[in-house]
């Protein structure tokens, strides 16, 4: 089974990324940031950590308020840096551990945490500011490990409570420790904080005494922190500083008693930049493989002609499903009708995917990984009805299919 080595807490201020990208490591004002993060970097290297589960919040870069979830798990194989207004950072993508992320997603759902998932989204400074300083770069070589990112929706209320974050961590521990890989060494990384406020007349607020009180409780009495409300966190640590509730996910994922290895804070300007390391003490019962992990889907394999839309299928056919979904956009639809081949090439469809779309191979697209609701958009664009798709998938003529229905009817999702 996978092993949780310990937890890291680190601020994710854009200050950190700026300092790294502009080589400020030797400047007196910036040196403490580099010194503190080097401790984290060396620890990850020395402990042979090969997976970072990194908890962060996005800053309306890739996650906006048209669809804003409390907990959103990355399930991709690669994560790029996002453009936050001045161009994306020149930093290599982080490699994702897709098998672990899928395992965690299913395990957390089984534990009744209703996760959202994401892929093909670039990540902003909430992720890459700390990651680019933590991931070891020894002798000019980049860290070879992988990541699983978790985006927490702390910007818009209602938001997850401190208690819910701590409970999430407890379930996350079980999920990771039941992953069947004895060579996997995981560090749980929580980002954000400490005290700061960046909006309104109160911007510039800090309270270093509260920050130390928070860190004391996080180590020795995290349960006390679960009792604080969002308003109390904002009062004590600044409105944006209330994002430190994400650190309770990390703490919940560790053993009840932890070994503190490192702790530092540095307040140069707007944010009290903090770094901590806690090592897991394994003071829990041994974890075994979760034999009930897939029980919600067990038996579906016996349903002939049925193709559950799993994360595996979603990842494989993402490009095709996105192409079909975008047919609901008038400009995409117009280009599809007028210059289909050029559009499919531009959207990087493979030869196989192009052929299925071009020839309207309905059942082949389903078997490949397309979801039906993309097919019905394509059929509407092409002037086809839903029953024509159904008949084709069943290998029947329209007359045969309609004869199997109580009422023979034609319809589609098209306007007419």
UniProtKB/TrEMBL annotation:
Residues 8-276 form the Extradiol ring-cleavage dioxygenase class III enzyme subunit B domain. It comes from the Bacteria. Residues 320-405 form the Extradiol ring-cleavage dioxygenase LigAB LigA subunit domain. InterPro entries: LigA_sf, Xdiol_dOase_LigA, Xdiol_dOase_suB. Pfam families: LigA, LigB. This is Gallate dioxygenase.
């Amino acid at each position: 089974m996978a092993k949780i080595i310990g937890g890291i807490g680190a601020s994710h201020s854009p200050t950190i990324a700026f300092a790294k990208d502009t080589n400020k490591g030797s400047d007196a004002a910036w040196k403490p940031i580099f010194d503190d993060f080097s401790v984290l970097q060396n620890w990850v290297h020395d402990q042979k950590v090969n997976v970072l589960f990194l908890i962060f919040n996005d800053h309306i870069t890739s996650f906006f308020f048209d669809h804003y979830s409390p907990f959103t798990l990355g399930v991709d194989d690669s994560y790029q840096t996002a453009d936050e207004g001045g161009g994306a950072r020149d930093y290599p993508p982080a490699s994702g551990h897709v098998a672990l992320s899928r395992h965690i997603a299913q395990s957390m759902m089984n534990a009744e945490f209703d996760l959202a998932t994401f892929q093909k989204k670039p990540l902003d400074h909430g992720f890459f500011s700390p990651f680019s300083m933590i991931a070891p770069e020894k002798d000019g070589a980049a860290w070879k490990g992988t990541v699983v990112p978790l985006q927490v929706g702390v910007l818009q209320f209602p938001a997850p409570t401190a208690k819910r974050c701590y409970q999430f961590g407890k379930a996350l521990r079980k999920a990771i420790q039941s992953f069947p890989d004895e060579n996997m060494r995981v560090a749980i990384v929580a980002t954000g904080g400490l005290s700061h406020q960046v909006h309104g007349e109160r911007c510039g607020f800090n309270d270093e005494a509260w920050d130390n009180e928070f860190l004391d409780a996080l180590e020795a009495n995290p349960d006390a922190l679960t009792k604080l409300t969002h308003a109390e966190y904002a009062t004590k640590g600044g409105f944006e500083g209330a994002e430190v509730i994400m650190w309770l996910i990390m703490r919940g994922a560790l053993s009840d008693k932890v070994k503190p290895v490192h702790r530092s804070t540095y307040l140069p300007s707007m944010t009290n930049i903090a770094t901590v390391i806690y090592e897991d003490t394994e003071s829990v019962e041994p974890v075994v493989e979760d034999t009930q992990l897939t029980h919600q889907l067990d038996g579906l394999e016996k349903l002939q002609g049925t193709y559950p839309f799993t994360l595996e299928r979603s990842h494989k056919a993402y490009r095709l499903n996105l192409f079909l979904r975008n047919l609901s956009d008038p400009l995409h639809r117009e280009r599809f009708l007028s210059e289909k081949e050029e559009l499919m090439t531009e959207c990087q469809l493979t030869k196989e995917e192009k052929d299925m779309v071009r020839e309207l191979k309905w059942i082949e697209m389903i078997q490949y990984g397309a979801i039906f609701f993309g097919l019905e958009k394509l059929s509407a664009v092409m002037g086809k009805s839903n029953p024509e798709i159904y008949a084709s998938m069943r290998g029947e003529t329209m007359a045969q299919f309609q004869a199997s229905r109580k009422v023979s009817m034609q319809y589609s999702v098209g306007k007419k």
